[in-house]
Fold this sequence. Notes:
- The protein is mainly alpha-helical.
- It has one domain.
- It has 11 helices and no strands.
- It has helices spanning 2-9, 11-17, 25-45, 47-60, 65-75, 79-106, 116-126, 130-144, 165-172, 175-191, 196-221.
- Helix 4 packs antiparallel against helix 5.
Amino acid sequence: MKRLLDVFSAPTRLFTSIKEKPEWILPFVIVLVIVAIAASSTVVLTKDAMITRQEEVLKERGLDDAQIEQTKKFMQGPLPAVFGGISGAIFVGILLLLFTVILNLFVPVFGGISGFKSVLTVVSFAALIKVPSAILKIILMAITKSPFVTTSLALITPNLEKTSFVYQLLAGFDFFIIWEMILVAIGINIINGVKKQNAYILVFLIWVVSLFIGIGLSFLRGPAG
């Protein structure tokens, strides 16, 4: 438990203590469980707004009242929350593993020693930052009843269209994600021997590239609905 708390208060001590014996399973599982709970809570807390939006989309597609009512009945049941929780956990799990693979691939290029288990340990412990992030967002959603809550630079432009490039770019600069990336850089500096400056360059370069890829994919998918 102390190690889990050290990621928030003493990350240097944490990563130094696990350098010889990387342990990734516990933090990884905790993150997935919290993400699943947060995703399910999001569905429950914003159900009315989601149903209203979905109803508008279905009407635009020309569905009749019976079909719309059937869809609304499904969305009011427990399954959307269950599916939301499971899909959220799977999605984040894949992202963490993908981030680990890419990071591990480039660690030697930036002067460090690669090791999938050690890098996954760093990524998993740093991802615990998602716990306070999820708690705060659940509280904000409970207050606003809106899925569009943010802890990012998008706070300075609340009136921007949510699908615009500028809004999505600002939303990508989430304060908790930045904190998480800083922890990853600290971790690979201590555990994988990447020089401090190189560690920050590597981590934030991967993050920025992934941010723009994510925005590009969202535009390719088109408006949500």
